[in-house]
Amino acid sequence: MEQHQRAYNFNAGPAALPLEVLKRAQSEFVDFRSQGMSIMEMSHRGAVYEQVHNEAKQLLKELLHIPEGYDVLFLQGGASTQFAMVPMNLLAGGKVGAYVNTGSWASKAVKEAELIGETQVIASTESDRFMRMPTAEEIVAPENAAYVHITSNETIEGTQFATYPDTGDVPLIADMSSDILCRPVDVSKFGMIYAGAQKNLGPSGVTVVIAKEELLANSPKTIPSMLRYSIHHKNNSLYNTPPSFSVYMVNLVLQWLKERGGLEQVERDNQAKAELLYGTIDNSGDFYRGCAARDSRSIMNVTFRLADEELEKAFIKEAGEAGFVGLKGHRSVGGLRASIYNAVPYASCEALAQFMKQFQQKNG
Ligand SMILES: *Cc1c(COP(=O)(O)O)cnc(C)c1O
Fold it and tell me: Which residues hold pyridoxal 5'-phosphate (predicted)?
């Protein structure tokens, strides 16, 4: 069979995976570590799977320099289930869940929390159409806050926190689904970080939770077992059957990141990709218009617009014919979006910048 060329994949999630990882998975797909079966076919209670599971945990700790006193969980249900699990586990009576509303995903987190307990939106950029992130000074935790919840990168709007707020003794909780591992982060500043895997970590099916053990240990006994952090923490995320193939793929992605030189190098590469695309937008004399405020621009999701929707439609159609995938903005905001997660090669961004210039020459 002829080798089909890899698409220029700018999908928002599930998203591009490193070609090296896919090939490695392919090479050990049928017979994993000489067991005569694939990883999907073996017991999650056996030594072989358990090793993969613990390797992934260890690598994540290494790459993010996760301090002592934190645990890493592999859960299911996506980041969307965390929107509910966070308040179910951590929002005790008399306390308030404090939320920073920065866009589509933060709004969903607020909506779920409101079903469960007392919530308060302590900062919002809705009046700026969510096109910027709040400054650290805008975020002040109320005295009775159980936690402060932020969304580090708004995948749909294309905004990202440049610096994180300091919430003192109140645990800071971040939904990092679309920018985890895109740059180094000081985990000790956070009570909890969670992320669905399918943007920057691997395939869908597993959700990573990194949290201080004290936040994981005391889940109320009134909530179902599967929704209690304490159950998963006590059982090394093996209380029930884990999403074993997804965890295995995450492990391969983490190895790939380590081989690339860790998160400092990953950040440099991501910066270069983002600068290339934002530069193309900014140097287009208003033909392309960046959506996000400059100081809030995401290095993961580049959102931009053209003069009108007709032109945007033409752009998406011609880009599709030229091999570019996933450039249509989310249906809720329109426009265009290039998601340039860790696994998207610089060469794909170069090809896109080239295409954008050609499209402008023809239509400008
Ligand atoms: C994609 C995304 C989610 C939803 O993730 P699921 O795994 O589909 O539940 C939540 N938050 C952010 C920031 C996202 O990008």
Answer: 79-80, 105, 155, 175, 198, 240-241
Pick from 154, 250, 236: nearest CA to 205: 250
By C-alpha distance, which of 168, 172, 103 is closest to 133? 103
Predicted model pTM: 0.97
Residue 4 pLDDT level (bands cut at 50, 70, 90): low
Q: Verify that 166 and 42 share a domain, yes or no.
A: yes
- Tell me, what's the pLDDT at 92? 86
Does 11 fall in a domain? no
* 271 labelled binding-site residue: no
Atom of ligand 1 nearest to the CA of 13: 1
**C-beta of 303 in contact with ligand 1 (< 6 A):** no
Residues 326 and 339 sit within 8 Å (Cβ to Cβ):
yes
Instruction: Catalytic residue, from 57, 199, 273, 328: name it.
Output: 199
Are 184 and 280 part of one and the same domain?
no
Flag whether pLDDT at 1 surpasses 50.
no
79 annotated as belonging to a binding site for a ligand: yes
Condensed to tens digits (0 to 9), the pLDDT of residues 257-306 reads: 999 999 999 999 999 999 999 999 999 999 999 999 999 999 999 999 99
Domain count, the chain: 2
| Atom 14 of ligand 1, residue of closest alpha carbon | 177
For residue 332, what pLDDT is reported?
81
User: Residue 2: inside a domain, yes or no?
Assistant: no
CA 183 to chain centre: 12
Strand stretches in 243-359, DSSP E: 289-290, 301-305, 324-325, 336-339
CATH code, domain with 77: 3.40.640.10
User: What pLDDT, in 10s, does the model give residues 18-67?
Assistant: 999 999 999 999 999 999 999 999 999 999 999 999 999 999 999 999 99
Euclidean distance between CA atoms 214 and 325, whole angstroms: 43
The answer to whether the CB of 196 is under 6 A from ligand 1 is: yes
Q: Find the 155 Cα to ligand 1 centroid distance in Å.
A: 8
Give the residue numbers spanning the domain of 348: 261-363
User: Are 200 and 297 part of one and the same domain?
Assistant: no
Query: Which atom in ligand 1 lies closest to the alpha carbon of residue 80?
Result: 9
Nearest atom of ligand 1 to the alpha carbon of 105: 11
Residues 124 and 177 in one domain: yes
Are 351 and 248 in the same domain? no
**In the annotation, is 105 catalytic?**
yes
Indicate if 132 and 217 belong to the same structural domain: yes
| DSSP-assigned states of every residue in 4-20 | PPPPEE--SSS----HH
